[in-house]
Structures are given as structure tokens and as C-alpha cells.
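User: Could you walk me through two proteins back to back? I'd like the raw sequence and the C-alpha cells for each, with a short line separating them so I can tell where one ends and the next begins.

Assistant: Of course. Protein one, sequence then structure:
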Amino acid sequence: MSSAKPESTSDAERLAAIEADLAELGTLDEVPVSIPGLRTTLDILRPTDTDRLLERAADDPEQNLPYWAELWPSGIALAGAIARQPHLVRGRRTLEIGCGLGITAAMAVALGARLLATDHSPEALLLARRNALRFAGEEPETLQLNWRSPDNPLVESVNDDYAVVLAADVLYEARDVTPLLDLIERVVAPRGLLWLAEPGRRPAGRFLEQAAAHGWSGTTTEWDGPWPDVKDEGVIVRVHQLRRRARAVRQRQRGRAQVPPLLDKKL
């Protein structure tokens, strides 16, 4: 699913076209979202009635619940983290796994990333396009993708290609750990960067342990908001910047990957 639009189409016309495609979601609210560490607010369009989305997902055999419709602190923190170091994404081929409403995507596009935003939900991709266009005046490219699926088209078509991979709050359950590790092993360039934001769920800890065993190491920062939803008060998001060590890259290419553990340094 591509977000490409004719260059002659005005931003207002593009916004109107996207919002027309979102009509089946019912009422939408525009919520101001403050980005931590910045004097920046994103106006994020999101569905008003999430119960309706839950009913639509009830018969999904893969149990892809509409997590994408929430304003998760991890996506907001990741937007703040990349804004603090824009040189790490500017002009670089960037992939976002599970873009949701597009908060991180909007910031990445505004900072000049060459972004491909992915999500299993076509509605999420539309909202990510709309919210990025509203904030940055540009849209990301988009691809409908269930990254947990072993036969997903991205893994089949891309290998060691992305300089930066962004992922916010994608590790909800134990079943998520191995597919995410398999995916980043395939799509992150040999000296590329994985930027992972998570609020301390147990699967994230398991993922970091397994990533360390595969040669990924880096630094961690902590973010405490402010978050737009009062129920998230007190949530601490950890944002990890992980790279594969050069030695690990060489060993992976030779078919062996035994390297030192992850360095989890607080900045």
C-alpha cells in the first residue's frame, strides 16, 4: 500500500482524500500531543470509538487487536528521542515497524528521514499518512505488513537494507520476541541502527537478552512524559539505540554469532 500522490496535488487536497478514506472508522478526534523535551505539539487524528474497533477485531484469527489506535507513551518518547539526534535519521533509509497513529512517523518525516512506515492495519497507515502530512507537510511511504508472519513480503524482498529501524511498543507478548529479532536481523544494514522504545514489559526484556546474544549493543535513555492520557501518569519509557558490533556482523556473515552481551547504559 503506497502513499505516493501526484506532485501537483495540494496538501489540503491530499488531507481531504485521506480523511475521506477514513470515513468508515466513524467519528475521529484530533488530540494535541506534546513531545517531551521539545516545544512541539502534534495534532494527532485518532478514532473516537475504540470499542467499535475491538468488535471488528474479534474474529481475527491472528488476534491483531487495535493497539494502533492508542496514544502510547513509547511512540511519543521515540519521537522525542529522534528529535534530539536528528542527524541519525536525516536523509537515511528508515523503516518503522508498527507505526500506529504515526506520531514517530510524523517526526521522522519532519526530520528528513526517507521513511517506510508499516503496520498490519490499513486504517493505521492512513492515519499515519494523514498525521505526518498535517505536521510535516510530507507523507511517508507505507506498506501493510504483519511483521510476525514468517512469509511477510518485507522480509522476502529486503535484506540488510535499512540504515535505521524504528519500533515503539511492539513487544506485547512472548510470541513477539523471536519474529522481531528475525526481522531486524534481516532488514537492518550491517552497521545500521535499531531504535526500540518500550515501557518495561517482560517480553521487551527477553528481546534485549536475545538481541545481546546476537551481538546487538548500545545505550538506553529513560523518558517520563508528559503523556496525553492521564492513565499513563508514572509510565517510564526506555528508548534503546542498538547496533550490531562490527565483529558480530562479520561472524553473522560467516554463519556464527557469539558476541559480548548488550551494554545497557543510562544516559
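----
Protein two, same layout:
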Amino acid sequence: MSAFKRRIGEDDSIRIVGTGMKTILFVCIHNAGRSQIAEAFFNQLARKKARALSAGTQPADTINPVVVEAMREIGIDMSHNKPKAVTFEMMEKADRVVTMGCSAEAVCPATLVQTEDWTLEDPEGKTIDQVRELRDEIKSRVLQLLKEIA
């Protein structure tokens, strides 16, 4: 296993220094909200020293537009993202899998790697204010995850 050090920048980003890039896979049912938010925050905050992917067990056709709006408010454009189906190859490449509180672990082969579940509400049908709260909660959890793997 690689040795890692972490440095937390003033802008909340975490720099992971070491050899071997960690890959985190965020999985939910539709890959249209929570997992997309987590992937976007992780990739922005890890600064290419670790990477995230997201996928769903039953991907939706599009990203939730309220999620896109909430992320755009903080400078992250997800308007071109598309929901993706989780694949065995994604699971093989992941160092850790995070399910998003939507019981995806019951239908996802996530037991192949270290897995944890974040109990988070689905943003579907939520107001922009509720999605902002969810977005901020996910950012907080992503920051904690980055500290753990650093």
C-alpha cells in the first residue's frame, strides 16, 4: 500500500501526495444526483491526486436538473454529465465504493472492495433549498473521505 500525506489548502481542497492513485466509486440507483455530486466534489478537491467515478444500478436518462442548478451555483457545471451503469470493470478498479443511502448495496456487487454507505436522501422531488443542503452534506463527507485516504 502506498504512503500518503495530506495537505489541506485554504480553499478546502486536499492534496494527496504519494504513489498510486486511489479510485473511489460512488454508486446509487439512478446516478442522477447524489453520486454525481460526490464524484464532482471528489474530483475537484482531490486535484488529480485521486479520482472518483460514479454509476448507477438502474441509471436514469438525465441528471436531475435541480442538482445541476445547485452545483452550477457553486461553479461546478454538471450539465453535460450523463448517468452511467455500474460495471464489473468499475468495481475491479475501485479502491473503495460508497453507496449513497439508496439501498444500492443490495443490488450492487460492491462487496468486492471496501464499501461504506452514506445514508442520504434522494434529491428527486426536492426543492432547490433542500438540494443545496444535500449538496453541502455531500461536500462535507467527501472532504472527510479525502482525509481518510490521504
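The helical segments are 34-46, 65-72, 88-93, 128-149.

Let me know if you want the two compared in more detail.
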